[in-house]
Specification:
19 helices; globular; mainly alpha
C-alpha cells in the first residue's frame, strides 16, 4: 500500500474508509503500548528490584522514571509533531519506544533499567500526542466522534489487562526470561505497529514556524528530577544533606520554570490559563488527586506481594477490581458530566474516600491476615471513585476557558497528569518505606492509606473553586 501525502483539507476525502479504520488501529496499538508499559511496573517492581538487587529506590524509580519523562516532554512532543509532521514524529517515537523496551528487557543493573525507562517515556511523549491529530486529518468531521469513541473501551481493557498480563508473564517465566518478557513482547507489538504505520499513515509536511520551548522543558525536567531524587534518596538512604539539597534544587528550578512561562514567546502552559481561577483550581486538584491515586495503586501492589505474600499474578488479579471500577465509572460518567458538572467530581472524591476508609479499617483490624475476598469490595469502590473523577476533573477544569485555549489546556492537563503519577508514586511509597524501616507491612500500608484519605478529603475543598459545568461536547 503506497504512502499518501495529504494536506489537512484534502486528507479525509482522499483516504478510503477501510484505510481510515486501519490507521485508527495503528494509533490504538501505540496508545495500548504506552498504557501497558505505564502500568506493568505496578505489579513487576518488587520482582525486578529483587532480581537486580535494586532495593526500595529501584521500586520507586521504575514507575516514576517513565511518568517523569513522559510528562515533561508530552507538550513538546505535540509541538514537534506540528513542526516536523505528525507521521514522521509518530514513527520516530514508535521506533524509539520499541528499542527502549528492548533495552528495559535486557537491563543488567538498576541504573540501566532506570535510564531505559526514562528513554522509553521520552519516546512515548513523541508518540502519544500525534494520534488525535492524525485521526483528525483522515476522518471526516461527522465520523471523528465514532473514531474517538474507540479509545475508551480499548484503553479500559488495557488498564485491566496490562497488570494481569505482567503477572502472567512473570509467573510463567517463559524461556526463563521472567519479568523481562513483559518488555521484550514489545518487539512483536511495536514491530507490527511500525510496519503498519509506514504503510498506512499519510505524510504531512508540518509547519516549520512552530515554536518549541526547549528551555521551559529543561527547567521542568530539573524541577521534577530534583523533587523525585530528593524524595526517593531520602526514603531509601536516610535524610542526609543530599536529599534536602536535591529538593531545594527542584524548588529553584520550579521558580525559574514559572518565570519562563511568563516570559517565553511560546510557553508550555499559556499564562492566560493560569490567571483563570477555575482552570488553576482544577489543575491543582488534578495534580493532588492523580498523585494520591498513583501512589495508592503502587503501595497496594507492594502490600499484596510483600505483606500478604501474593504472587505477581495473584496481586494483579487482586488489583483488577480497581481497573474494572475505573472503566465502568468512566463510561457511565461520560453521560453525566454535562448534567452534574463539578458535583460529579465531588461525588467521585467521596466514593474514593469511602473505599479508602473501608480498606484502611480492614488493614488496621486484620493486618497481614487480611483475606482476598474481604478486600474485593473496598478496592472496587476505590476504582469506581477514581473512574468518576478521571475524565470529569479535566472536563470541568476547562469548563469556562476560551475555546481557542482548549488545545493548550488539554495538552497541559495531560502532561500534568503524568507528572502527578510520578510524584505521587514517589511520595506515597516514601511514606510506605519510611514506616517499613521501623515497623511492619501492615503499619506501612495503614499510614499510606491515611495519607491518601487525607488528600482525598482536602481535595473536596478545591471542587468549589472549579467551574460549575463541563466544557460543551464540541470542545472536550
Amino acid at each position: 500500500m503506497s504512502t499518501l501525502t495529504l494536506s489537512p483539507a484534502t486528507a479525509a476525502e482522499a483516504v478510503s474508509p477501510n484505510r481510515r479504520w486501519a490507521i485508527l488501529a495503528v494509533i490504538l496499538i501505540a496508545d495500548v503500548l504506552d498504557l501497558l508499559d505505564a502500568t506493568i511496573t505496578n505489579i513487576a517492581a518488587p520482582t525486578i528490584s529483587k532480581d537486580l538487587n535494586g532495593g526500595a529506590a529501584l521500586i520507586q524509580w521504575l514507575g516514576a522514571a517513565y511518568a517523569l519523562a513522559l510528562g515533561v516532554l508530552l507538550v513538546v512532543g505535540g509541538r514537534l509533531g506540528d513542526k516536523f509532521g505528525r507521521r514522521r514524529v509518530f514513527l520516530v517515537g514508535l521506533t524509539g519506544f520499541t528499542v527502549a523496551s528492548i533495552a528495559c528487557g535486557l537491563s543488567f543493573s538498576p541504573a540501566s533499567i532506570i535510564v531505559a525507562r526514562l528513554v522509553q517515556g521520552a519516546f512515548g511523549a513523541l508518540l502519544i500526542p500525534q494520534g488525535f491529530g492524525i485521526l483528525g486529518a483522515v476522518f471526516p468531521r461527522d465520523q471523528i466522534g465514532k473514531a474517538f469513541s474507540a479509545f475508551g473501551p480499548t484503553l479500559g481493557i488495557s488498564a485491566v489487562g496490562g497488570p494481569i498480563l505482567a503477572g502472567f508473564l512473570i509467573d510463567a517465566d517463559l524461556f526463563g526470561a521472567g519479568w523481562r518478557s513483559m518488555f521484550l513482547i514489545n518487539i512483536l507489538l511495536g514491530g507490527f505497529a511500525i510496519v503498519a504505520a509506514v504503510k498506512l499513515l499519510p505524510k504531512d509536511t508540518g509547519d516549520s514556524t512552530t515554536a518549541v520551548d526547549g528551555i521551559g522543558s529543561g527547567l521542568l525536567a530539573g524541577t521534577m528530577l530534583g523533587l523525585l531524587y530528593g524524595l526517593i534518596e531520602g526514603s531509601s538512604n536516610g535524610w542526609t544533606l543530599v536529599p534536602f539539597a536535591s529538593l531545594a534544587a527542584g524548588l529553584v528550578f520550579f521558580g525559574l520554570f514559572c518565570h519562563r512561562q511568563r516570559t517565553a514567546a511560546s510557553p508550555l502552559i499559556q499564562p492566560s490559563l493560569l490567571k483563570n481561577r477555575g482552570f488553576t483550581s482544577g489543575l491543582i486538584l488534578g495534580i493532588v488527586f492523580f498523585a494520591a491515586n498513583a501512589g495508592l495503586l503502587f503501595v497496594l501492589s507492594l502490600f499484596l506481594q510483600n505483606g500478604l505474600g501474593y504472587s505477581p499474578m495473584r496481586a494483579a488479579l487482586g488489583l483488577a477490581p480497581v481497573a474494572a471500577g475505573i472503566v465502568v465509572a468512566s463510561i457511565a460518567c461520560y453521560q453525566l458530566v454535562g448534567k452534574l458538572g463539578r458535583n460529579l467530581v465531588l461525588i467521585g472524591l467521596l466514593i474514593t474516600l469511602i473505599g479508602t476508609g473501608w480498606l484502611l479499617a480492614l488493614v488496621h483490624a486484620y493486618g497481614t491476615d487480611l483475606g482476598t475476598w474481604s478486600m474485593l469490595t473496598p478496592i472496587l469502590i476505590i476504582g469506581l471513585g477514581m473512574g468518576t473523577c478521571f475524565g470529569t476533573i479535566y472536563d470541568v477544569t476547562i469548563g469556562d476557558i476560551d475555546p481557542k485555549e482548549a488545545g493548550s489546556a488539554s495538552g497541559s492537563l495531560s502532561a500534568v497528569q503524568q507528572l502527578a503519577n510520578a510524584i505521587g508514586a514517589a511520595v506515597v511509597t516514601t511514606v510506605y518505606f519510611k514506616t517499613l524501616a521501623s515497623d511492619d507491612e501492615a503499619h506501612a500500608m495503614t499510614y499510606s492509606l491515611i495519607v491518601v484519605a487525607c488528600v482525598a478529603l482536602l481535595s473536596t475543598g478545591l471542587v468549589w473553586l472549579m467551574p460549575r459545568n463541563a466544557q460543551p461536547d464540541d470542545h472536550h
